[in-house]
Amino acid sequence: MEFRDKEAIYLQIAAYVSEQITLGRWPAEEKIPSVRDLAIELQVNPNTVVRAYEFLQNRGVIANKRGIGFFVEPDARTKIKEYNKERFLNQDLPEFFKNIYLLDIKMEDLMKRYDQFVLAHYSGK
């Protein structure tokens, strides 16, 4: 995983975990990787993964079953989509709109590229 400079690493890890859940790679009510295992996989400090897991736990995405590990909550996908949609609409979309306006990009061009992107990256879903 390549980390970006402009966002805290624990938030990027939380986004990675959320993506795994949203894509169904980590199904509802199933155990997710331990803090230690994910820290090793992502080559980060375990405390950073703990912080990401706490962030997701506070949003009701995962739950800690004491002595067993962390599990995906039954409605995790819905909660992730609600949180990410709100964040995208309020933070990312205004900047995106500004750029397409300034660059004079037409909606037809965007739709064509969007369809190509989905086909290339998520057609095996």
UniProtKB/TrEMBL annotation:
<dbReference type="GO" id="GO:0003700">
    <property type="term" value="F:DNA-binding transcription factor activity"/>
</dbReference>
<dbReference type="Pfam" id="PF00392">
    <property type="entry name" value="GntR"/>
</dbReference>
<dbReference type="GO" id="GO:0003677">
    <property type="term" value="F:DNA binding"/>
</dbReference>
<protein>
    <submittedName>
        <fullName>GntR family transcriptional regulator</fullName>
    </submittedName>
</protein>
<keyword id="KW-0238">DNA-binding</keyword>
<dbReference type="InterPro" id="IPR036390">
    <property type="entry name" value="WH_DNA-bd_sf"/>
</dbReference>
<keyword id="KW-0805">Transcription regulation</keyword>
<feature type="domain" description="HTH gntR-type">
    <location>
        <begin position="7"/>
        <end position="75"/>
    </location>
</feature>
<keyword id="KW-0804">Transcription</keyword>
<dbReference type="InterPro" id="IPR036388">
    <property type="entry name" value="WH-like_DNA-bd_sf"/>
</dbReference>
<dbReference type="InterPro" id="IPR000524">
    <property type="entry name" value="Tscrpt_reg_HTH_GntR"/>
</dbReference>
